[in-house]
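Chapter review: from sequence to fold.
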Amino acid sequence: MSKLFLLLLILWPLPVKAQRDPVRGIPVLVYHRFDQRQTGATTVLTENFVEQIDWLAKHGYRIVPLQDVVSMVTENRLPPSVRQVAITVDDGHRSVYTELYPLIKVRHIPITLFIYPTVISKASYALTWEQLQEMKSSGLVRIESHTLWHPDFRAERKRLDGQAYAALVHDQLVKSRSILEQRLGIQVHLLAWPYGIFDDDLMQAAEQAGYTAAFAYDGKIAMPNDPRLAIHRIARSPWSRRLPGARADGCSQAGGEAMNAMRLVLLFAAFGIWTVRDCVAAVSQRVLITDANTGKAVSRVTVVIDGRTAPVDGSGSIEIAASAKSVSARAIGYWPYHSDIAALREQSTISLRPIAVHALYLTEYGIASKALREPVLDIIRRGGANALVITIKSDRGNLAYPSAIPLATQIGARRMTTIRSLPDLVTDLHSKGIYLIARIVTFKDDPLATAHPEYGVRLNSGGLFKDREHLSWTDPFRREVRDYNIAIAVEAAKAGFDEVQFDYVRFPDCPQKLQFSGTADEAGRVKAVTSFLAEAHKALEPFNAFLSVDIFGYVLWNRNDTGIGQRLEEIVPAVDYVCPMLYPSGFSFGIPGHPNPVGTNEDIYQTVRLSLEESIKRTHADPKMFRPWIQGFRDYAFSRRPFGAAEVASQTRAATDAHADGWSLWNARNVYTDACLK
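The token string follows.
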């Protein structure tokens, strides 16, 4: 039976004796935002709210404190009247104070605010502590918990391992109560589940945290036999007076007044025919993208809706169509964000979690070796790092995992497997809270050049060029070479890596004259490198993975392309992160004003800091676009000094002081100490 037919049945006049008996429960209505001009999936026109309240009064409904609902459930008793309703407002938007509060003062309406405190007095769209204090003092407004920062518990359970997830749940439930109680001088006993997501474990955690009741978000009327920690609530109506048009305000095809919408809400919920979420799903939604810590809007965000990049306006918000299924977002300095659309329907923000990447490097062998892998993971568990760079295509051109790319098998690049499943590896490491970077050695590719000499870099004599390791390189101009490496990057992104990092995206540094399929002067080299990066960046966009590139340290200082196609000003716009190899030992000729890069720990510090500051000055780019590779191995160019805890600490401090996006520590043997990683 279609929903439209059921809708007609509800609205069709019926004989009195054919109507059902009234449902003996209390509807708990949920609101979020109020506005005088525009409506949306979580925003009600102020005049519509007034009409809805008038409709309730006209039809004999009495607005009661939420505690009456809690008492009905905890005492398992029927309410004294079938015409009672409670009003709740989630999140803490400033319009609660500017639009709603003046109305409830005049009409003496009791309401309950469910607040997540991390945005209060921080986000421009949020309430302030002073406003909450004033509303609380009126005696009409009760303030309760909506967790600490409104997480999607379903997504967090998938992302974190058991211990980390339990810690997150504890913080969300306990810290929220503590902050609200300390700032407002109140007792917090009630909880609203973010996005309406809860399960038995979460309800048990809420009880242990001291909550006496908690509320769901499922479009049903609260009944005496509801679970005490999952009491039903009904979303507020999204309709306005306007008929549907280019910007539909609701799913009522008949249009009509806003009180008809309230009637539908109550009828649909009472009879279980059509939940309010069905109507909300028919409305486009504007979502603000914010910093999870500060609540401020995040700039320079890339949003992907159902695999396609979507425009973000100047205020940092995005319009999400009713037909959307999934939403992803990313911005430099933050974890990538992924969500299905259902989790966003009751929320007006996408909160991005900041991260400064502190990465350790593991080869394709290191990730497979328990002797090498476990000490690295132990450093991460103790807080010394939070990310891994893992080689999936090696310096010798071998793919470490079962790739579905036919060319990889044809050229013999799949002779050995050290990573049995990329998705399984990602799932396991994400559950430990680790940011993951897939390293791909790009144009240095002996198997591809050997199997297809026409793709290789050639000597004037016609033979394949061999580098100091007697390995062949591929031609950066060749379409087949570019497509192959981009296909590998896409496999990594599909597996769930947060970032794909290309290494050896350059021409060979060779004094001999070499032969390429394109014009290999400076302009040609630079164009080949930067256009490849731009193509890869576009290919990765649907999968919400960042793109980074490793470059020589001297590229930050040289105004030319260093003879390898890497020119800083052209590379920066093509990628998300630039990862210069700022190993002090690599600056064998020194840098301007700093002739001895490894003389003392202070010299080591200055080598990294001065190089980063030079790159920022030259490009005017956000410092967080730069994440340097730093040295975790013995000096090879100057004094042969070992690089231990003090030397590494000098480099990490330099990266921090230059406001870079963290650092990545390189040791080819994958042997690290956490003495310097704090």
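Two observations follow directly from the output. The longest helix spans residues 162-184. The chain has three domains: 24-273, 286-352, 358-676.
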